[in-house]
Amino acid sequence: MLKLIKHRLATGLVLAAGMVGLLMGTPAVHAANKADEVKAAYIMDAQSGQVVYAQNADQKLPIASLSKLMTLYLVESAIQRGQIKWTDTVPIDKNVRKMATSATLSVMPMPAKEHFTVKELFAATLVGSSNSGAIALGEYVAGSNAKFINLMNQQAAKWQLDAHFISASGLDNTDLTNYDLKIAGTGEQGQNMVSARAVTTIARHLINDYPDVIKVADQRSVKIHKYTVPTSVQILKGEKYYDYRVPVDGLKTGYTNQAGACLVATFRQNGRRMIATTLGGAWKFTANNNLRLMLKQTERYQQVAPKTIQYQIPGTTTKLQLETDSQTTMWQNTDHPMTQTKIELWPLHRTKPNYLAAGTAVLKLRLTDPLSGTVHNVIYRTPKALTMLGPVQWATQVKKSTTVSAAAFAMAK
User: Fold this and answer.
1) With 100 labelled, which of 23, 83, 314, 403 sits at a CA distance of 20 to 30 A?
2) Confidence band, pLDDT 50/70/90 cuts, at residue 392
3) Residue 128 contacts residue 122 (beta carbons within 8 Å)
């Protein structure tokens, strides 16, 4: 994780070149213009969960339509449980149909004479960011808008996220009140408040648990009845703001006056599925593009610790071959590699023979990112059960061999 130190950043996110300079120890470079500023940012390896970058990661902020990622996750979950089906026709409340006629809040109308399936509304919500589609889906899953909001918050609590939802669509109460969708007890300007870490985690659950979501998201438009719903993610291939250097294949945009420009982008780097989130920007795409470019320039996915290690037991000349099933390949900064600290886990008995069962944890290798302090622990264990001789034998036999293989120590109980 490349966490930028707050006091070195006077205003938001700096340009990629400036960020690289900061990591190299040079003074911070301020954002060239408003398009490069964000309130929070986060990049995660979706497969391993490793955090590669974080800025104000745990500050709760309005996330606008990024909220729909949680809505879509709960729809997928309901389908997986058999509670609803993709082919079900979704009943749509009159207030939601009224919202669908809004020139500013809707991407397609929902006239009473037309019927929409779960699959159609899912695509409209993910690709085009349909507010009425998200709300209608939520009401269908839970029975009412209020009950669905409860489900959203329950799921956030289950994942232990810094998140509080009052809206299935991400619209705030200044809009929801007009359609009788304001949750009782919430403020006149109430809105979903979620951290960058939390919304990235939601996205990770969505694409890992339901990977076909990417196929839906990676479309420039979807045809629903006679309506063509264009993507809001205008950095997909073929779209106006596509950047061939750091291509994306989804996932979701968001914007309200209070939230600013928000984006969760999914992409591949070094063959790895990645998620990059930016919140509170002045524009949706520039800062996120620069973050992905920074990752490409400064981070490598590589082996940072060996899978097997030869370990000399302290106080003896005895060496053991240990192995680990921990993750040893991960993202690492090319200029500031992780520091390694060895920590002994197994206590040597000095007055009696020592027995180590197979799989005994003997050594911990602590890997620390010097830029952020993020720690990864690699545990090394004995591959087989071992019985080691006591101190008298070490004193009389130590010079016969300086290296003892694991097989030489294997003895029956």
Assistant:
1) 83
2) very low
3) no
